[in-house]
Amino acid sequence: MANATLLCSPLPIQTNSSLPTLRCPEFLKKPRPLTGNLSIPSLNWKPKPVIGIVGSALALALAGSASASELPLLLGTSLPLSEPANALSLPTWAIHVSSVVEWITAMALVWQYGEKSGFESWKGLSWGMVPLLGGAFCACTWHFFYNSESLEVLVALQAALTVIGNATMCYAAFRICKVTDKNSQKL
User: Fold this and answer.
1) What is the DSSP secondary structure assignment for residue 92, as one 8-state letter?
2) Residue 78 neighbours by CB under 8 Å, 6+ apart
3) How far apart are CA 88 and CA 140, in angstroms?
4) Does the structure show a pLDDT above 60 at 176?
5) pLDDT band at 186 (very low <50, low <70, confident <90, very high)
6) pLDDT digits over 32-69, tens only?
7) How many CB atoms lie within 10 A of CB 158?
8) Among its keywords, does the record have Membrane (predicted)?
9) Where are the domains of the chain?
10) Of 128, 158, 165, 180, which sits with the fewest C-beta atoms within 10 Å of its C-beta?
11) For residues 35 and 51, what is the distance between their CA atoms, to the nearest angstrom?
């Protein structure tokens, strides 16, 4: 804004030489409305939640190895908290949870793209991502219960859902490619 003010001075510029006077470019004369949204085509993101999520993720990632068993040391209390040796640290949990949130967000964005672009085959890609989300839930559940031997069936289920999810996404991508090829041949 300050640059526009400096470049668009209402007073004529006095020159002692024969150089031409600089004029204000047209795009600087038209004031743009200030909005509270980030302008990304087809997305309408509010900056405060985005900054909050990014800030929380950074804080969790930079917190270091802080598990519940280390909490009394951090808080200066003598509360006895015991966790098994295979418990996940706070940054590892942050990565697990943020990965699931990112995957759900990606599914929603792919679905919206399919609706707004008119290419319904993109919705199939969103459906193809569902088994992989199920696998992510299996992994988080297994870790939540400290990798319990009684829940090892979740590891096998996660592996199966990963294979199924990779196959469904491959098929959905093939459908998108087929529809795109048909549309490009019409041109």
Assistant:
1) H
2) 72
3) 10
4) yes
5) confident
6) 555 555 444 555 666 666 676 766 666 655 554 455 55
7) 20
8) yes
9) 38-62+86-187
10) 180
11) 16
